[in-house]
Known about the structure:
Distance between the termini: 27 Å
Strand order of the largest sheet: 1-2
Shape: flat
Amino acid sequence: xxxxxxxxxxxxxxxxxxxxxxxxxxxxxxxxxxxxxxxxxxxxxxxxxxxxxxxxxxxxxxxxxxxxxxxxxxxxxxxxxxxxxxxxxxxxxxxxxxxxxxxxxxxx
Length: 108
């Protein structure tokens, strides 16, 4: 059933003594999201090495075709949130690392 979840994020418990002064405020987060929506609406493109990486995960049986598409989609969102319309290898690798069913057993 976890295959239906696109990503799983483990969050470290925040200690009361930790400072929040470096956290982005609501306005900054809203601006990043609005900017990312514009980037996604204009279209994003996977760089060759990013597409090759996703294809290798599929060919090696690490993900299904649906899983590969979700990696592309989440990678595109990560790139857009970083202000880029070009999805990098790092973006899709981060997307893969967020999958609940992924276990690192090989290197790209």
